[in-house]
Design goal:
This protein is mainly alpha-helical. 74% of the residues lie in helices and 0% in strands. The longest helix is centred in the middle third of the chain and has 28 residues.
Length: 269
């Protein structure tokens, strides 16, 4: 509780650090924040060609939307996954990148992590807005489910923030963590139903692996997105509740690890 109070008391610093990150993100870039829309669209185009054309992957027809296209199906799960991965990658280096600030100034160090989380939220807000517009244009009646999507987005941010807090301090003591985490994220990506349907876990995955894949928290999050945006139907409410529990458990554990390791950050960074 004391840690939360200290962050709230440093909200002006948090806001200024977030603004700094936003201003420097696409500095000297011709297209600027347009890249926030072009990057996910380019990724979807590449994945759609590889999996949808070369591997002939089929997407189920939207239950209430009537949509039938691998690109739309992929986009609805790829964006939340990219959001989670962005929070992880930005948070991991938040302490190391600001080594000078950590050494010279006394302030709640987790503010550095949360400024990157807010930066990622801003970028994701642009991408999510574009996705919702696309879904409406192609005829998916998603308006009743947008509040559920926004709630799930908040929970993804909380879930990712927990990992970011832990990774930011652990990477100071163990420099190879950045490389290992990149490999782990790739494995996690393909263990999550992003480029394939969740139903394949039952039909294709080995029986011993199915409980592990089904317990994947990001599977719950991407399923909510697909239910609400692609199928235009109510999500699995128990799955959403379970993901909420995972999100706040992640934040609690990540914050605990952060405070256990932050004592010698100024010396080690």
């Amino acid at each position: 509780m004391k840690a939360v109070t200290s962050v709230v008391a440093s909200r002006e610093l948090l806001w200024n650090l977030t603004l700094r990150e936003l201003r420097t993100k696409y500095r000297r870039s011709v297209l600027g924040w347009t890249w926030s829309m072009l990057n996910p669209l380019a990724t979807v185009a590449i994945y759609s060609f590889i999996f949808g054309v070369l591997f002939d992957a089929e997407a189920p027809r939207g239950a209430n939307s009537g949509l039938h296209g691998f690109g739309w199906f992929l986009l609805c799960a790829l964006l939340p996954w990219n959001f989670f991965a962005l929070i992880n990658n930005m948070g991991l280096g938040s302490i190391s990148v600001n080594a000078g600030l950590v050494r010279r100034v006394a302030f709640p160090r987790e503010v550095l992590v949360f400024s990157n989380v807010l930066h990622a939220c801003t970028q994701f807000a642009i991408e999510l807005t574009l996705l919702c517009i696309i879904m409406l244009v192609v005829g998916s009646p998603i308006l009743p489910w947008i509040p559920v999507v926004l709630l799930t987005s908040f929970l993804i941010a909380v879930f990712g923030a927990g990992f970011a807090l832990a990774l930011s301090t652990m990477s100071v003591y163990f420099r190879d963590l950045a490389y290992l985490w990149g490999i782990f994220l790739q494995l996690w990506f393909f263990a999550t139903p992003v480029v394939y349907s969740a139903s394949l876990i039952d039909s294709k995955a080995p029986e011993w692996m199915q409980p592990i894949l089904k317990a994947n928290p990001m599977k719950l999050a991407t399923s909510v997105y697909r239910d609400c945006l692609y199928h235009a139907q109510a999500p699995n409410w128990w799955g959403l509740l379970l993901f909420a529990g995972c999100a706040f458990a992640s934040l609690t554990i990540g914050w605990w690890i952060f405070h256990r390791l932050e004592r010698r950050l100024a010396e080690e960074v």
